[in-house]
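User: I'm writing a short methods note and want a consistent example. For NADH-quinone oxidoreductase subunit M, I'll paste the sequence; you return only the structure tokens, no commentary, since I'll be parsing the reply automatically.
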Amino acid sequence: MFPWLTALIAWPLVAAAAVAASGRSRSGIPGPRATALTGALVEVALLVGAFAQFETGAAAEHQLAETYSWIPQIGASYAVGVDGVGLLLVALSVVLVPLVIAAAWREQGGDMTRLRRYLVLVLILEAFMVAVFSARDVFLFYVLFEAMLIPAYFMIGAFGHGPQRRYAAVKFLIFSLAGGLIMLAAVLALYFQAPADPTTGLRAGDAFLTDNLTGLAIDPVTERLIFCGFFLAFAIKAPLFPVHTWLPDVAENAPVGTSTLLICVLDKVGTFGMLTLCLPLFPEASRWAAPVIVALAVVSVLYGAIMAIGQDDLLRLIGYTSVSHFGFIILGIFTFSPLGTAGSSFMMLNHGLATGALFLVAGFLIARHPARSQLISEYSGLRTVTPVLAGMFLVAGLATLSLPGLATFASEIMVLVGSFEGSPAAALVAILGVVLAAVYVLLTYQRIFTGKPAEGLGALPDVGGRERAVAGVLVAALLVLGLVPQLALTYVDSPADRTVAAVEGSNQ
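Assistant:
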């Protein structure tokens, strides 16, 4: 059988090497951009092949699996495989990368050397993203969880546009490393819970496989401590209030493409880890911690939305909207309802599409300002000046506030209805986040696009074909999944049922 997942992991690294070695072609077309885009599109073709081999009827099982011994002395393996949720997040990673590359066509001030280095990092990050959503070995997952920090750190600090980009990069690194170190302690503690040979004291050569660590008889206090180690690392990555503060700074100071990949894809590692590691490995501890986590999720929903309303920096505003939406995702996971869990899984995909569209369209807008200003107060009246751009921003914004007919609506309704089954009070309070989303989206649109054009903005060019194609792909995906959500729900329903059954079954 063809190793689809290994190919999806390895190919971006090959493409990154090709971009690093590229220069200008004889025809004058910049080589790095064309090489990077071609490599990313080949990755999309590999993704299509992986989807063709995936059996939706067994979406709860890990498929396309490969397992090879890596460090047998400690029981670590190169083990990859995806269930339906993992495959959708791999798809989100693979689809967003060529769009980010196309959107960054004229970034870095036309400096082709800087752009080439940036695109190399984008492709390396893509390999890590695919790998972490495919990992079935806890030690491998941890290594990838930490390795992703390296390209992300440089993409923020070295290539950002904001005045505090280095501060944002260091803050991101410190928060992530702190969570990673705590997670490492939890990984080692979990390893020592695995059965050992009574004569040698050694664990099996595949002791870190998630399948082998599921269902262990762990002392309740120990289980709760290990759970807290994993959960804190995932809460920082997600991010969940109050360990979210790095995200708005990154959104404000990083390149738009970096924010798109970091917030729309990498942060899903946090919620993906909660869903696929915390719940199955620590079911009793998950139930024990659920009331506090649900309360924090509701706070995140309201806090992120309220903070978004008060922002003048457009990119920082979008960052805060993600804090709110991650609150919804975590709420659905920890109310232990099959409907809510499936809704959270679907929302991970939809948030990436909607917020990715909003970030990239905001980048098109900022690139047109004479001073590249990110301040909302320095824009107005662009609906008549750049009508296509205004329409693209409005559709992306409406997707963010979960307008019926768009994919985000179905997933948010599933989360709220499912959460109501497990925690009616939390669901009722979280509904306020839907109202606040309408406020921050429509208010922002009004301030930027209605009224009289601001001084110096009356002759801005509208979006071109490349930019329309980038936004069009995401808008089309939101429309298709909004009208036919079953296309994605087929992949998340049975994994949700299995996860919730595992948590409930441990309580019997």
